[in-house]
Design goal:
The complex is a heterodimer of chains A (about 140) and B (about 70). Chain A contains 3 helices and 7 strands, in the order H-E-E-E-E-H-H-E-E-E. With about 140 residues, chain A is α/β, with parallel strands linked by helices. In chain A, a hairpin with a 4-residue loop joins strand 3 and strand 4. The chains are: A alpha/beta (about 140), B alpha+beta (about 70).
Chain lengths: ~140, ~70
Amino acid sequence: MVFAGRPCVSIVVLACQPLRPYNRFVVKQQVVRVDANIQWKILQAKSGEWVGVCDPLKLTVEAETWADLMEDIGHTLDALLKDLLSSNELDRFLRDQGWKLLAAIPSRPEGVRFDVPFIPAMMANANGTARQLHQ
Amino acid sequence: MVRHDSFINKIRTLDYIYKTRQKRTDLWRKKGGTHYLSVPNRDLLSDEYVTSALSQAGCPPKEIQNFLTSAKC
């Protein structure tokens, strides 16, 4: 009788528990677009890697493939703006660059993702071969 | 090509501090300024990348050349 009763009690207890909102800790990502058009000069290193150089921001990014480079540039710009946001320097930086946010920063900035448009322009590669501009 | 560790040691001497990690890169920031460096998470960095990044960090060409010569692998 004892063994037969225990499972039934357990089932009742589980059934009485309220549904848990497992998704309540998931931070929703909110994209904040930036009104900016910065040019990145792209070249291929002698060793084959792709290198992107942004003179206005004094930034250089390197990646193994073209697709990785485009993604890494976007991630770098996002990380840079997030860091400036966390130190309350974003407004000043945007003013200095002449950029504008196309949406307000959300009240919970930990979920923000900055989307900064950029223009890749192919330059001469390390071997000196001239490449055409992509635009 | 330059070893990742050598480059990190160099930018530390230039007062850059680690900020965040992205998918394939790390973000470093100059102490007391708003200049950033994006450093690939790879063992070897191309000469072209190192030259451009150090130049943007304010290193004179001769210092960059000396670093490349000493750090080359």
